[in-house]
Amino acid sequence: MMPFGLGALGWLWMLGGLALVAGVILIVIWATRLGGRDSEDESLRALRVRFARGEIDATQFEEMRRLLGPGGRPGADNRLGLVGLALVVAGLVVWILGSWVAPAGWGPMMGAGGMMGPGGMMGPMMGLGAGPTAPADTSVRMAGSRFEPSVLTIAPGETVRWFNDDALPHTVSATDGSWDSGNLAPGQGFKRPFDAARSYAYLCRYHPGMTGTIEVTGS
Prior knowledge:
Layout: H1 8-53, H2 58-68, H3 74-101, E1 139-143, E2 146-148, E3 151-154, E4 158-164, E5 173-174, E6 189-194, E7 199-203, E8 211-216
Parallel strand pairs: 1-4, 3-8
Antiparallel strand pairs: 1-2, 4-6, 5-7, 7-8
Helix pairs in contact: 1-2, 1-3
C-alpha cells in the first residue's frame, strides 16, 4: 500500500499519513463535542429561565443541573482541536518533505510507489501497471527489485536495453561510476552499447543489493 522500496522514505510517508488521519479524527471529535456543549448550554439557559420564573424551586434546579452535567470543559476541548490541527499540519509537512527528497517519479500518492501509483493499493484498480515486458536476447528487465537476467552475455558492439517492469523506480549504474542511467520510473528504459570485450558490473543506486553483469565476449 505504501512505498517500501526506498526504506526510510516509505516509513516516513506512512507516519505522515497516520498523523494526518489521526489529526482529522481528533478535529471531528472536537467539533462533535463543541456542538454537544452548545446544546447543553442552551438547556442550562432554559433551566435558569424556568427557575427565574418560579416554575421550579432551588432543589429542583440543582437536581436538573446535575443531570445536565458540568456544561463541558472548553479548555480541554480546545486543546483537543489544537492537537488535531497540529497532527494534520505535521502529516502534510512530512509528505511535502518526503516528496522533495524522493527521486523523480516517486511520491506518496500518485508517484511510482504511491498508494495510487503502479505499485500501490489503488494502482491496479485504476489501470496503472508496470512498463512493457523487455524483449529477449540483448535486454534486461527490472522486476521484483532484481535484474533478469543478472548476467547477460553479448558480442562486442551490441547494445543492451534495460526495461523497468517493476513497480519501483530503479537505476542502472556502473559500479565503477563510469556510466549511469539516471532515475528510471516504471515503464521507462535505458540502452547502452558495449564495445570492449570484458565484464561490466552494475547495480541500482536505490537498492544496492540489486546487481547485474554484462559479459562481452568474442572479438
